[in-house]
Amino acid sequence: MKMRFGRTKQAAALLCAWVIAALAFLGPALAQEQWTSLGSIPGGTWSIAPDPSDGTAMYALNSGGISRTTDKGATWNVCSPGATMMRLVASGGGQATPLLYAAGASGLRVSGDGCKTWKDVATQGLNPSAAHVRWLAPYPNNASVLYAGMDGLGGLYRSTDAGATWQPASKGLPANSWATSLTADPANPSVIYVGLRYTGNDHSTAYMYKSTDGGLTWRSSSLGIHVLPNSGGYITGIGWSGNTLFAATSADGMYQSADRGTTWTAATMPGRTTAVHDSTGSVQVSSFATGADGALLIGTEQGAYQSLDGGRTWQTLGPAQTEGRPTLVALDPLSGRVALAGAGGAWSYKMPTGTVTLPRTTSVPGTQATSTPPLPASLATNTPTSTSTPTQTPTVTPTPTVALVNGPKPTDRVE
Questions:
Q1: How does pLDDT run across 303-338, given as a tens digit for each residue?
Q2: Which of 85, 173, 168, 160 is nearest to 128 (CA)?
Q3: I need a labelling partner for 176 at 20 to 30 A (CA). Which of 61, 155, 315, 324 fits?
Q4: Residue 258, exposed/middle/buried by CB under 10 A (0-12, 13-18, 19+)?
Q5: How far apart are the C-alpha atoms of 112 and 119, rounded to whole Å?
Q6: Contact 59/52 with Cβ under 8 angstroms?
Q7: Is the distance from CB of 74 to CB of 90 less than 8 angstroms?
Q8: Buried b (16+ CB within 10 A) or exposed e, 349-375
Q9: pLDDT per position as a tens digit, 168-210
Q10: Distance CA 251, CA 285 (A)
């Protein structure tokens, strides 16, 4: 009896240890179940954004414009009819509500009060007109520096005064290209990457471009990226997880670069165990987001996924209603708020901290890579002001001084 009792006690201890280890391993996965339902979403929604200032608020964009809910999806109100683009930008300056930009036939507008009232953004210098703006992104950590992507007729433009004036910033980019995504190098803020799509079948095979002078000039950085020709494929998003740069495509899977965009290899995708590129079986990535801690989130035709280890493995993300269905995903990197939307409805939750474990990589000598790119010295000391929108004070993440590349800076005017 004593022997049996001893073995039972030992087995119980082993079982307890196994349960503790399992809970530790499944902690991030269990946190995924703590979703808040936001009800249904407007039909035909192709873009979503969580409002970091309000846990029950969310934006949706469809052919009718921008809609907003503040009651967990019980009601949706169209607050910007006719808009074809929306972008939430952290406003800084102690203002909790982010700036919401919208573009459409009426031009470029901005709201600082959650889509209640709007102001026109000056569009001097945008050609052919502001009605051709299809995409907009801020420079990291500074809402006064904006990049506007046109519909293939005007290329890329940059503003260093919160949209008061604009200058062409597409020297070196292929003609008839659309800008779809932008990010900066966390170890060198003057290095910027932009992802492209094309308006016609006769176009360049390069889909990723790199600028070493803050966006003044561009060169192809697409070696290893294979988007099927004439398939309408394009870069849906780019972002960092540690020192690895990721690029998601609409039909040809994902790619990763360990040498800051010099070369690319096919990234491991959900449901795969190797990073072998298969153009016939690639997961279509409709939306892509990265967290400040290096978390990777993707929305695909078969549900949403997250990677908490730098893209080595993937886990399903979201409630059971989204699994196996086309799903959109969005993430506010500062607050950690995640939003999912699909045919079954919309959901939101806050990502727990401390769940991301990135692989060890060699940092750039003399610099320290951070999740949020630091400001160039010229932007940190001379923040532009705007006559058309409230003055934006950049929120700078304290980081060691980084060496900037020689040449023009993002605040220099384009010839």
A1: 999 999 999 999 999 998 888 889 999 998 878 889
A2: 168
A3: 61
A4: middle
A5: 9
A6: no
A7: no
A8: bbbeeebbebeeeeeeeebebbbbbbb
A9: 888 999 888 888 898 989 888 889 999 998 877 778 889 999 9
A10: 7
